[in-house]
Amino acid sequence: MSPVFAHGALRLSLLSMLADRPMHGYELIQALGERFGGAYVPSAGTVYPRLAKLEAEGLVTKTVDGRKTVYAITDAGRAELDARAEELAAIQTGVADSVKSLADGVRASVGEAMRSLRADLAASAQAPRGQTADEPVDVPTAGAGALREVEMVIASFRQQVRADLRRRATRGTLTEDTVTRLRDGLEALRRSV
């Protein structure tokens, strides 16, 4: 995944938030997370070094309040924000675009997981051949263990193949021939079981 913030963008975002009110580091991290709708929350290892650099440049000050270190913007920090107002506006637009992109990715993953879950539920709801759905399925204990193991093997295989196919699709090397070979191979395997 590409970085959420371009070079220097986190720096201006932190200054912008501190222009509203002084905050401690954790508050800044949470505020950034809220700006991204929870889809991205920067780590302390990302935020605190930027705050230290802003302090070294004289753009923020820090004061210790009990166990918390509170950061506040300086006049020099406000002057930098004013001088880079257009850049900050572009960053905020970029953040909105990043949030949309992250949300689209999450939505697609959740949708795919739901489709997979529905397929798994539908498959498990299918009664064995010759039985109605109301009849209980009596699986001997040894058979139940083997069935669980087979289900785990199939689930692992499915995840690995999915990952491989996604990589090929991303690189543009997933072809109709691959799909046909996979379909035919799986059908042959199903018939042999």
From TrEMBL:
CDD domains for the chain: HTH_ARSR
Top-rank taxon, per record: Bacteria
Segments forming domain HTH arsR-type: 8-87
InterPro entries tied to this protein: ArsR-like_HTH, HTH_ArsR_DNA-bd_dom, Tscrpt_reg_PadR_N, WH-like_DNA-bd_sf, WH_DNA-bd_sf
Database matches in Pfam families: PadR (PF03551)
Protein name: PadR family transcriptional regulator
Organism name: Curtobacterium caseinilyticum
Taxon lineage: Bacteria, Bacillati, Actinomycetota, Actinomycetes, Micrococcales
